[in-house]
């Protein structure tokens, strides 16, 4: 389908879930992945797999309202063939990531950093 001459292309839509309860991890995963792939039930199942013999699961809130720990996020990503990499801001992140060859990087920067372009430098 072609656009009319002089028409501006519409910006791409961004998937975003608003925060609800203590489901930060679920919303963060879905927002980063740009679709609703995870639910509270799915996160609870991951918690059970991470601590199958535990009466009080250490990977979520005692009240069952969410508040999942980072192990749940990492297991969810691994289930999709993805990985989370710990980043220490004291480490030369971009240089290390780019030195590994072809990779995908999600980098969140402030508007000021974006405008200056200083995230492009690896020094």
Task: Write a concise synopsis of the structure shown.
With 123 residues, this protein is mainly alpha-helical. The chain has five helices and no strands.
Biggest β-sheet strands, sense, barrel: none
Low-confidence stretches: none
Q: Kindly state the mean pLDDT as a whole number?
A: 81
Helix proportion: 25-40%
In sequence order, what are the helices and strands, one letter per element? HHHHH
Tell me, briefly, the overall form.
extended
| Count of the domains | 2
Strand content range: under 5%
Number of helices: 5
The strand count comes to: 0
> For the terminal residues, how far apart are their CA atoms?
45 Å
Keywords, separated by commas or semicolons:
single chain; 123 residues; mainly alpha; 2 domains; 36% helix; EC 3.4.19.12; ubl conjugation pathway; Josephin; hydrolase
Characterise the protein shown here.
Its EC number is 3.4.19.12. It catalyses: Thiol-dependent hydrolysis of ester, thioester, amide, peptide and isopeptide bonds formed by the C-terminal Gly of ubiquitin (a 76-residue protein attached to proteins as an intracellular targeting signal). It holds the Pfam family Josephin. Helix 2 packs across helix 3. This protein has helices at 24-33, 40-50, 70-79, 93-99, 111-116. 36% of the residues lie in helices and 0% in strands. The protein is mostly helical and 123 residues long. The mean pLDDT is 81.
